[in-house]
Amino acid sequence: MTVIEPPVEIKKHALWEDALALLIGSFLMSWGMYLLNAIDGVTGGLAGVAFLTSYVSGWQLGLVYFLVNVPFYWLAVRRMGWAFTAKTLTAVALISVGVGLHPEFIDVTSLDPMYAAIFAGLAVGTGMIVLFRHGASAGGFGILAQYLQKSRGWRAGYVQLALDLCVIAASVALVEPWILLCSIVGGVLLNLVVAINHRPGRYFG
Asked: Which interval of the chain is the signal sequence (predicted)?
């Protein structure tokens, strides 16, 4: 006997749910980036490019992160649509501001690098999942990862991991070996969170 399952009714997120998700996801990501910055660490993707540029130039991380994302909005508009682009731009702006605001509320001058990197990886990965599931990304390589998952079916986490490894390889000259190792551990955890929890066809809404 064949059992026919009724079709799944897909309910889109409400506007207030998307708005709240942007705040939550951006907060988690900015917190993770703040922890990494506090130990002079690095992460992968375009955020990693922002870290390295900030260390070399002395500019604030939040400002650099916002600026390096600007060229990717063209791809976002062309391939992902205006709604995705607007949400992503909002998230990037919130992350950029958040990175600079965290020091006003908490002091992390005494922080174990490995703990900070692990916590940062989990926080950033979770924040990315929240943004992805509400039609946004953290900008940059995240836009590319989302596009390739949508158009090719490639898992966003694996795409992000490949790009991350390229950036971390470029970090060898600027980051101390132990801090770089901690950063790599955090980066692996970040991408595992995304790869396990964000697969094509597994999430509706």
From this structure: none
